[in-house]
Amino acid sequence: MIIQPKIRGFICTTAHPTGCAANVAEQIAYVKRQAKITGPKRVLVIGASTGYGLASRIVSAFGAGAATIGVFFERSAADKRTATAGWYNSAAFETKAHAEGLYAKSINGDAFSDAIKQETIDLIRRDWGGGVDLVIYSLASPKRQDPDTGIVYSSCLKPIGQVYRNKTIDIMTGEVSEVSLTPATDDEIAQTVAVMGGADWARWMSQLHQAGVLARGVKTVAYTYIGPELTFPLYHKGTIGRAKADLEAHAIKIHQQLANDLQGEALISVNKALVTQASAAIPVVPLYISILYKLMKQQGLHEGCIEQIERLFSERLYLPEGQKPARDVAGRIRIDDWEMREDLQQAVSECWAQVNSDTSLTLTDVLGYRAEFQRLFGFGCDGVDYDKDVSADVDIPSIDK
What we know:
alpha/beta
């Protein structure tokens, strides 16, 4: 079939297998050009198929030579429907890893469920015998079913306490308009925390620990975002921010357990704002990212997921013996440091005050944002013939469909 992008709002309902494979190959090539990382050898990535999770798996495998297990919830192709981008990404990753003699297996299913946790533990025991030395937690989902109660919680993107009004942009047209968001109810806040907070991360680490499959000195890292004051009312101080505060609170508890029992540690990494399927859904944020991209590219500071995670591993997580990684006052790793430079944020604020529909093409990198968004689904990649007939049915080597 000939596959073209079908975009509805912030969702693309198609994905291109060759384009996704090209995207993965490009990220792998970047990592292989960097210095070898002396780090983890057995890595579990929870949420491994797109964005920061996929980049973490690529850096682990091709930067550190690690064996990896990836957990995700993706859909294979069926009838005239393509697979999801995450399915194609994972297929391409495994194929590349196996070609270089690297262990790579994947588990497809609801990572919030105890059944998938047990399946993962069984695989670790069978193939590795234990000894996971890095666990990356990078899940992004709008819903979560509590494995104890069966209750399904839904997250929302809302401010807390008062109506929030600000600019936003239609990425496909460049039109700038005002968005008005009503404050979340107490129930919406609680449900968002239940989905996006730290409860599931803690459950994963507890079950892995109890099963005896964590190595001494194990590290676990969860990703978060803080951002500038410009987006605080919606993000850092909104429902998402409340969930991220819960994530950090759980990090302290996980860290205490790992430190006491295994001399391990639990870390929070604050990452840069990037075009991801999750960030595209947040009002205001695409406009901020479009301005940020333009300024960071002008200053030679721009990074994508793969550059961010390679820097996280090589400059923060796995340093030469005797060197201590830089942390902020809350103990978090900050690889959003370039984004949050005072001079850069001042320039963002100045552009924000001036941007409108007439100036969006000159003051923002909306075209770059749009291109990055389409690349998430395998479109617009160099060297790919999108007029060519391709098979949408692609296998992930380690998964039986």
